[in-house]
Design brief:
Layout: E1 4-11, H1 15-26, E2 33-36, H2 52-55, H3 60-63, H4 68-73, E3 76-79, E4 84-88, E5 93-96, E6 101-109, E7 113-115, E8 128-130, H5 134-145, E9 149-153, H6 157-168, E10 172-176, H7 184-187, H8 189-201, E11 205-207, E12 212-217, E13 221-226, E14 231-233, E15 236-239, E16 243-245, H9 248-252, E17 263-265, E18 276-278, E19 283-287, E20 292-294, H10 299-313, E21 325-330, E22 334-340, E23 347-353, E24 358-365, E25 368-375, H11 378-390, H12 398-403
Parallel strand pairs: 1-2, 1-6, 2-3, 6-18, 8-15, 9-10, 9-15, 10-11, 17-19
Antiparallel strand pairs: 4-5, 5-6, 7-16, 12-13, 13-14, 19-20, 21-22, 22-25, 23-24, 24-25
Helix pairs in contact: 1-10
The protein binds flavin-adenine dinucleotide.
The site of flavin-adenine dinucleotide (FAD) has 36 residues, from helix 1, helix 10 and strand 21.
């Protein structure tokens, strides 16, 4: 027996969950909306946690999508510090950590990701940080105030952004990564060279093509030992070792899981249980754009998917077909923006100048543009979006792509 019922239950107060609640309200959803989130804060943006919030230039309130009053004025019941412990998709009920059982009409599961923890010797030492929430960012900033040398493990955007932010705060940062160059896994070798030079020029030491072997120290971390045997002195360590979709609730509820570890969804983001949608980092959906199932861990994608799930709940079921967009900021040194449908191109073309820091890298596969990274060339990004979405055949047009007018293509 349920204690009460709501029209829509949203599980997870992150980017996707908040966007879904907003869109349900804006779309005139006539019934009660309950947004249950495990964290203490109202839904907030995570990107500042490695950028402005970590640097201390953006305060906590500025990270919130809306303050708590915004939700209550719109009759969205915000339940912070509340976890959904169990979902019975046949009975359409959810058991909350408050022990309350809530019956729902439709539900969104938007439980996001958790950090991927490395199990290495020394992992339990003090001074080792992972970054997912604002609280982690607080802890990193507080520890950085007492530290001189910071080692960052990983070559992806979290490690790069934190290295840039902490270097700007005066810390000596060293990055250890398996990749040959920072961000090359996401953006390809040409961009990797650019980011490598940028980070080095600002004083970040890069240890590339090497992995973490163990962490050493008595109580607190004192050094990082790499797979090749290098010893890097460290007063603190930030692990940027990726994220894993949080499917604990979904798995227990019997929702089908996919190859990438996410929750399998239709092209309209509905899960294997009728009336239950998924959105954001843990949503592995059948993408018409990609021609198969994908799972994407980007802020704007989570927001757009939350909105699309709300539209489906309101009766407009369409294949989700927004072109993924992502950005990263390395302190105030550089902002890079990316659009695309794959991260493994066959061929790349550089427009502009990597040396001048104003360029685009066009990724092609099968004669078609599949992704573009731009630094300081917003127009290129807009044209790339059009060319990718249209699937224009660009075979044999490398010269025009490198230096011609993209508008004419
Ligand atoms: C430090 C950092 C910087 C980033 N920077 C960028 C960037 O520059 N650009 C970009 O595009 N992307 C960036 N991202 C990625 C982006 O933030 C994520 O893709 C986005 O937050 C995903 O949103 P989500 O709603 O799917 O999940 P999340 O934001 O992870 O939210 C999920 C929420 O669900 C809660 N939850 C889980 N299980 C339950 C449960 N059973 N009951 C209740 N609540 C539950 C979690 O506690 C969490 O609050 C960054 C991420 C991090 C961590």
């Amino acid at each position: 027996m349920a204690d009460r019922s709501v029209g829509a239950l949203i599980v997870g107060g992150g980017a996707a969950g908040a966007a879904c609640a907003e869109a349900l309200h804006e779309g005139g959803f006539g019934d009660a909306i309950l947004l249950a989130g495990r964290e203490a804060d109202p839904p907030y943006e995570r990107p500042p946690a490695s950028k402005g919030y970590l640097a201390g230039t953006q305060d906590r309130d500025a990270c919130l999508f809306h303050d708590a009053a915004w939700y209550s004025k719109r009759s969205i019941e915000l339940a912070p510090r509340v976890s959904v412990m169990r979902l019975d998709t046949a009975a359409r009920t959810a058991t909350l950590s408050t022990k309350e059982v809530v019956e729902y009409g439709v539900a969104l599961v938007a439980t996001g990701s958790n950090v991927r923890r490395l199990r290495v010797d020394g992992a339990q030492l003090q001074g080792i940080h992972y970054l997912r929430a604002l609280g982690n960012s607080d802890a990193i900033r507080a520890d950085a105030e007492q530290s001189e040398r910071v080692v960052l493990v990983g070559g992806s955007y979290i490690a790069c952004e934190v290295a840039a932010t902490l270097t700007s705060l005066g810390r000596r940062c060293t990055m250890v990564m398996l990749e040959d160059a920072p961000l090359s896994g996401h953006f390809g070798p040409a961009a990797g060279r650019f980011f490598g030079t940028l980070l080095r020029d600002h004083g970040v030491e890069l240890v590339c093509g090497d992995g973490l072997e163990r962490l050493e120290g008595s109580e607190r971390v004192e050094r990082v030992v790499t797979a090749s045997g290098r010893e890097l002195p460290a007063d603190m360590v930030v692990m940027g070792t990726g994220a894993m979709p949080d499917v604990m609730l979904a798995r227990a509820a019997g929702l089908e899981l996919g190859e990438t570890g996410g929750v399998v969804c239709s092209s309209a983001l509905e899960t294997s249980a009728s009336g239950v949608w998924a959105a954001g980092d843990m949503c592995e959906y059948d993408s018409v754009l990609h021609g198969g199932r994908v799972r994407i861990e980007h802020h704007e994608v989570a927001r757009a998917q939350g909105g699309a799930a709300a539209a489906a709940m309101l009766g407009t079921r369409r294949p989700y077909s927004e072109l993924p967009y992502f950005w990263t900021d390395l302190s105030d040194w550089c902002t890079a923006e990316w659009v695309g449908i794959t991260e493994a191109p066959e061929h790349e073309i550089v427009r502009g100048s990597l040396d001048d820091g104003e360029f685009s890298v066009l990724h092609l596969a099968g004669g078609r543009l599949v992704a573009t990274l731009s630094v300081g060339r917003g127009d290129d990004l807009a044209h790339a979006q059009r060319l990718i979405a249209a699937g224009t055949d660009l075979s044999g047009r490398d010269d025009e792509l490198a230096s011609g007018d993209l508008e004419a293509l």
